[in-house]
Amino acid sequence: MTPADLSSTVARAVRRAVEDGELPAGTGVPERIVVERTRPGGVGDYATPVAFQVARAAGRPPAEVARVIADGLAAEPGLVRVEITGAGFLNFTLAPRAAAELVREVLSRGPRYGYADDALEADPFCWGPTAEFRQRAVHEAVVRILRSQGSSQGSSQGSSQGSADGGAPPVVAPVAPVAPVAPVARRDGDVVAAYGRDAATWAALAVPARETPHFDARLLVQDESGEFFLVRYAHSRAKALGRAAARLGFHAEPGQVDASALLRLLAEYPLVLEAAAHRRAPEQLVRFLVRVADELLDFQHCVLPKGDEKPSAAHRARLALAEAAGTVLAGGLALLGIDAPDCL
């Protein structure tokens, strides 16, 4: 079982419990069940508070509902253990997934890895002349993330803002259900002119919408001390590794590879997108991309043969993992509305 499968697996367990009479008839199943990496001090690999959601509709204590759900998951393949902590949190330990299987999935799905099966295309964005830069950046990122997870709530809808004489076409602003957006401290034109649109968008999305973003010299640094540079540079390094391997006469081939931290992050990416959509929080995706970039840049040094070393199956597997990480970085940046250059 993959981490991304957990949400639908838990939903099926809740539905079966209602059908079998273990939970009261009419108990609703949440449309999407958010499963996240267990926090420090927790147990297992992943956790969900779904029992608290279901308990309200079922009229039962969350711990009792959690026990019913846990019993229904006992025989699920790929789940090593299901535990209940606190007042009703469900915690899961997954059977290890083969590295080659995960990397192959990422590479086969490309930038759409992490998207839900019912993902929707985002409508074109069109804003009126008075819309602020940060408002646009936050709302557009939220819409893309929502629709990557199949939510139609990110549809572009709004009121027309055409001219009074009807000569100008209507302008429609996408409506995304997000918290009020704090404006930038400087005028929009100044921010974009000073830092460039991509860097300004990164800063606008790096903190929760209610907080004021920070624009400073770190957005312009061309080294790994700046997170905006770090993420795009890591993507360009993945591309450069592929070009260098081609010159050495070998290509990527998923296989067994010793890089548990990077593999864990790739497996978590669909959950990160789901959580970011659920909370309308693109800053969660920003933070995740920084973690992937850090791990990829640490890992890159063992990808290519050194000296007289000949390319081996291990090198091909490492290259495939690096390319998969680059794919995740490119896909995440695209959802944020930021370019991922091949060379940087």
Key structural traits:
mainly alpha; 4 strands; 11 helices; globular; 344 residues; four-stranded antiparallel beta sheet
Task: Outline the fold blueprint.
Blueprint: H1 3-19, E1 36-37, E2 46-48, H2 50-58, H3 62-73, E3 79-85, E4 89-94, H4 99-109, H5 133-148, H6 188-195, H7 197-205, H8 227-247, H9 260-279, H10 282-299, H11 313-336
Antiparallel strand pairs: 1-2, 2-4, 3-4
What's this model, at a glance?
The protein is mainly alpha-helical.
How would you describe what is shown here?
The chain is mainly alpha-helical. It is 48% helix and 5% strand. The chain contains eleven helices and four strands. It has helices at residues 3-19, 50-58, 62-73, 99-109, 133-148, 188-195, 197-205, 227-247, 260-279, 282-299, 313-336; strands at 36-37, 46-48, 79-85, 89-94. Strands 1-2-4-3 form a four-stranded antiparallel sheet. Helix 9 packs antiparallel against helix 10 (282-299). The chain is globular and about 60 Å long.
